[in-house]
Design goal:
This protein has 741 residues and is mostly beta strands. It has a domain of 232 residues: Immunoglobulin-like (Sandwich), CATH 2.60.40.1190. It is built from 2 helices and 49 strands. The strands form 7 sheets. It has a 24-stranded antiparallel barrel. Strands 3, 6, 9, 10, 11, 12, 15, 16 and 17 form a 9-stranded mixed β-sheet that branches. Strands 4, 5, 7, 8, 13 and 14 form a 6-stranded mixed β-sheet that branches. Strand 45 and strand 46 form a beta hairpin. The chain is globular.
């Protein structure tokens, strides 16, 4: 156990570009207790077994919020035990008012920010960059994720953590007379590490005391950063780690009935199928994954979006096979210039599923490098009504190499899409190459850069380049960044995501954080602004967006409200549809130059309360017309088991070329029978398409996200122009099982 003297936090104040807050402290040193043969704690969520008494406890947790650097207001004890099979972690979260513990989530991998919770970070290679995260709350949910490059890689993921990585582990929690407690049993074969005696891992833990909106850390993390700041982690010593040899088999069986009423004949289709996923721990830091006859029927449906721009929208990847280690396969700028976007595999441009025949992925550490190799083969897809080709069979290959130097890294990536089979035209290929750099220039400053090229047949544009430089600086008081990028006219990453091309872009952001002591009800005043300018390659203005948020107040319990001004410019070179309904009526914005301004109020109440709400209202100009925009969401929670949310987005737009209104209403309901069994529903109404879609999903999980799934989907037409209201429906039953060796 570390003495409180050794863990004293020394705060140093310096002057650097205004102000900075630097932490100078001893790195906490922890020791894991060793279990003998036949010894193991009973993982039941109550830390009272004799084995834990022999494990050194660490309890000097330090606040990040609300009072940075001060001792936590509630005591937390964490202990570690290890044997040849598992790492055991026990957390006793003492609470002076246990009846006020907040439990607002009950689903696997749910957000732990609005509930009392604990998250544990394990830097198993002790490299200060990459880690695994395991967490839970008093309900006992399973939460796990991967961190790469301290959360800087994978900006697609919330908070820089990929929570779609599913580990095979056990966690149990209980609310007790002294607060709430949790016990974890994490199989060593689930992790990647260097085997051997007397090994050291990086380790940190964050406890969220929700009713106080207080976040405390085992190893202090400066404000402006989160748990994914791996480089400041404590050290867990004394680990005896065996060779890692893991083989997991995940077979599945599925049966489905699909009724497509848009077809004139044979509207009902019945199918049954089987498939298999395999995971093999090739060596301690390297894993091979394979999938055969892949199916993603259990994946949650996309939430619909309203597009009022001339560029395609980004829909996130949700399929588990592609999301594991997804940060490693990213190069470029997330959601803007992605060299590889896995949603291009097995989905058409319209979102229609395309069968994946088989695929494999090798990922991990090899000879000092992060290595990623992926190959997927898709089947051809043909429209059953028209006989038109949706997509020929395609082979997708990705090779990624990355070298880490301290907190910096550099690497390269190659992406290839090759059309194969009878439906593929001649020279049907697209290749992309890129190199990137993430340089930790200072303690708080980081430079990102990439340069990429694509090659296509001459009939599809040939070859061209794209690149970006981006610098960001963050400390406890401010966060600022500036960047430039350029994309060539013929740059075309077909297996990536690129909403626009032939541009130069300059972007800048600035965020200021101030905590006024004279007003205790205010947690933070956070004015911020960002501005982005796009020009064509001749440096003529194409578009710009400005976000001027000078009034932004954060309440101490989690509420927030503020007012901002948005400025925009756009110069479409050709007319584009901004709206089209089911009757065929279109509203077309002509080519020209436009500039407009709008004001917006946004705010939300405490999201952890039984009843919560958020509101955005934008009033102002839109191109050469006007817009009134509402976005309202109301959340209702009955304990941890029943969670629901209803939203409403309304756009009322008036322009010389035409007026239109659009409504989008999503309703989400989740009921948790246990932490592993839940019923979810997503019902969405879209006025523009005059449709109501439903996705109902029953999940009875067993291990590592596997188990029994029942999924019902339907889509209905609410317009008076079709004779049959039901457009289609499907019913799917799927069972998948994990066998671990």
């Amino acid at each position: 156990m570390i003495s409180s003297t050794r863990n004293a936090l020394i705060l140093a104040v310096c002057v650097l570009a205004g102000q900075c807050f630097a932490f100078a402290q001893d790195v906490p040193q922890l020791t894991a207790g060793r279990l003998g043969d036949g010894e193991r704690p009973n993982v039941d969520g109550r830390v009272d077994e004799a084995e834990w008494a022999a494990a050194p406890a660490f309890s000097n947790f330090i606040q990040q919020e609300p009072n940075e650097g001060q001792t936590a207001t509630e005591r937390t004890e964490i202990r570690f035990l290890i044997d040849l099979q598992n790492l055991y972690v026990a957390v006793a979260s003492f609470d002076s008012e246990p009846d006020k513990i907040v439990v607002s989530e009950s689903r696997r991998d749910a957000d732990l920010g609005d509930t009392d919770s604990i998250q544990i970070l394990l830097d198993t290679f002790n490299d200060g960059q990459n880690a695994f995260v395991f967490g839970t709350n008093p309900f006992g949910i399973e939460y796990d994720g991967q961190v790469m490059a301290e959360g800087q890689a994978g900006r697609t993921f919330s908070g820089g953590i990929n929570t779609d990585w599913n580990a095979d582990f056990v966690v149990r929690s209980q609310t007790t007379e002294r607060g709430w407690e949790a016990e974890f049993a994490i199989p060593l074969k689930t992790l990647r590490y260097n085997p051997g005696e007397d090994r050291t891992w990086g380790v940190n833990a964050m406890r969220n005391i929700r009713r106080k909106n207080e976040q405390v850390f085992l190893a202090p993390v400066p404000r402006g950063y989160n748990l994914q700041r791996v480089s400041v982690a404590a050290k867990l010593n004394g680990l005896s780690l065996p060779e890692r040899r893991e083989i997991k088999l995940l077979p599945y069986a599925i049966g489905s009935i699909n009724d497509d009423r848009t077809l004139r004949t044979d509207t009902v289709d019945r199918n049954a199928d089987v498939g298999l996923d395999l995971k093999w721990g090739v060596r301690a830091g390297l894993t091979f994954d394979a999938t055969f006859n892949t199916d993603f029927a259990q994946v949650e449906a996309d939430e619909q979006q309203v597009n009022l721009t001339r560029f395609p929208l980004f829909f996130p990847e949700k399929r588990p096979f592609f999301l594991e280690n997804a940060q490693l396969f990213q190069l470029g700028q997330s959601q803007s210039i992605d060299l590889f976007f896995s949603r291009r595999i097995g989905l058409s441009s319209g979102g229609q599923p395309i069968d994946i025949v088989a695929g494999g992925r090798l990922s991990g550490k090899l000879g000092g490098y992060n290595v990623g190799l992926l190959n997927m083969q898709t089947n051809e897809a043909v429209n059953s009504r028209t006989g038109e080709t949706i997509a020929p069979a395609n082979n997708f290959s990705v090779l990624r190499l990355q070298r880490e130097l301290g907190r910096s890294n550099f690497g390269a990536m190659f992406v290839n899409r090759q059309g194969v089979g009878r439906l593929a035209p001649a020279e049907d290929f697209n290749r992309a190459y890129g190199v990137d750099l993430a340089w930790q220039a200072t303690t708080n400053g980081r430079l990102f850069a990439f340069l990429a090229r694509t090659d296509s047949p001459q009939r599809k544009g040939g070859s061209d380049y794209a690149g970006r430089l981006f610098y960001t600086y963050a400390n406890s008081f401010q966060n600022t960044s500036v960047g430039v990028a350029q994309v060539g006219e013929r740059f075309n990453p077909e297996a990536g995501f690129l909403p626009r091309r032939a541009f130069r872009r300059v972007e800048a952001r600035y965020n200021l954080t101030h905590q006024p002591k004279q007003w205790p009800w205010i947690r933070r005043i956070a004015p911020h602004t960002n501005f982005t300018v796009y020009t064509n390659l001749d440096n003529r203005l194409e578009s710009s967006q400005g976000h001027w948020h000078f009034f932004d107040i954060h309440h101490r319990r989690g509420a927030r409200f503020g007012y901002l001004i948005e400025t925009q410019q756009d110069r479409p070179r050709r007319p584009f549809n901004v709206y089209q309904d089911v009757t065929g009526r279109r509203v077309v914005i002509p080519a020209g130059e436009y500039a407009w301004t709008a004001g917006m109020f946004e705010g939300n109440t405490d999201p952890s309360a039984p009843v919560s709400a958020s509101l955005r209202q934008r009033i102002g100009q839109f191109y050469d017309g006007s817009q009134i925009h509402w976005q309202l969401s109301i959340g209702l929670r009955a304990g941890a088991r029943l969670i629901s949310q209803i939203g409403w987005t309304r756009d009322d737009i008036k322009m010389p070329v035409g007026n239109f209104k659009n409504d989008l209403i999503p309703v989400k309901v989740t009921y948790a029978f246990t932490s592993l069994a839940s019923l979810q529903g997503l019902i969405q109404y879209n006025r523009q398409t005059s449709s109501i879609s439903s996705n109902i999903r029953l999940a009875l999980l067993d291990r590592s996200g596997t188990g029994f799934f029942v999924v019902y989907n339907d889509r209905r037409d609410t317009s008076p122009f079709t004779p049959d209201e039901l457009l289609g429906r499907s019913f799917v039953i799927k069972y998948t099982r994990l066998f671990s060796y």
